[in-house]
Every structure is written in C-alpha cells, then in structure tokens.
Design brief:
mainly alpha; elongated
Length: about 170
C-alpha cells in the first residue's frame, strides 16, 4: 500500500461542488440505516444545545431569569448560578456545553454518507465522554445543589439518547 492509499479514506477539508451537491442530496433525502441513526444523534444533540442555549442566556446575563417548571424541587437558577457552573475554565458551563455539543455534532456529521471507522469511533468516544459528564452534573444537582434544572435534564436526555446509536455505528 502506498502512502496515497493510506490516506484515501480521510475526508478532505473542502470538497468539489459535485461531491458537495451529492452530500447535500444524501443528507436531506438519503434513507440508509446509518444516515437515519446519525440524524437521530444530531437531533439529540440539537435538543441538548437548545436547552444549554437557554442556560447560557441566563448565565451570561443576556436574560435576568431562566424559566423553570413550577414543580417542587426544580430550581434552575440555583443550579445555573452556582459557583460550580463557572468553575471549569472560569466560564459559564452553558457556553462550554454548546462548544462540546458542536464538536460532537461535527464528528457525527463529518465523513460523508459512509464515514471511515476512525471517525465513527471518535464520535462514539466523544458521545461517551459527553454522557458521563452529563450524568455527573445531574448527580451534582441532587447531591450538591438539592435542586433540579429542567433545562439541564433536557440536555442530559438529548445527550444520552445519542450514545447507543454512536456505539452501534462505531462497531
């Protein structure tokens, strides 16, 4: 195998217009099992990102309040304004969640219709790390803050929903 062949399964940073048109058509109308699974993963991450966007609006002062369910035990401001929410890298964790989700979605969306194995595995590892951290933060809501954030739980559900498919596609 020559060096050129060793790198042939890697997606270039830019593709020609004909390949881009094919990718557009495939993503929008393709019916493969793999593509359907990638769409489900992206849907989970987009839901998680929407929820974290609401949290980030509050954490950065773009809005003075964060809506919360009128249910005992739910108190998003307590969770989202806690010191813990600003400890990692000294910034609002809602912003970090958006960056992390965007990275995972890029891994899921890259590689064309049939991404190479290394890319599918990278997406699965990243989804696993995301899921583990989301579970840890949800546990902290109960144990440290004694309050739940409904937005954070939506993000948890979206993140966890992508993991089984990510693992399946990595195999």
């Amino acid at each position: 195998m020559n060096r050129r062949d060793a790198f042939s399964d890697r997606t270039p940073l830019a593709v020609d217009a004909e390949r881009a048109a094919g990718l557009s058509r495939s993503w929008r109308t393709g019916r493969s099992r793999s593509l359907a699974g990638r769409r489900r993963m992206l849907g989970g991450y987009l839901a998680a990102s929407a929820a974290m966007g609401v949290v980030a609006l509050y954490q950065t002062g773009l809005t003075s309040r964060v809506p919360e369910l009128p249910v005992p035990g739910f108190d998003a401001p307590t969770v989202d304004a806690s010191p813990q929410a600003y400890q990692l890298l000294g910034m609002p964790d809602g912003l970090l969640a958006l960056l992390s989700n965007a990275t995972t979605m890029a891994l899921i969306g890259a590689g064309g219709v049939a991404p190479p194995r290394w890319l599918r595995r990278a997406a699965a590892v990243k989804a696993g790390v995301d899921s583990a951290y989301a579970v840890k933060l949800a546990s902290d809501q109960v144990t440290k803050h004694r309050a739940l954030c409904s937005w954070c739980l939506v993000a948890l559900a979206g993140t966890l929903s992508a993991l089984p498919e990510a693992v399946r596609q990595a195999r």
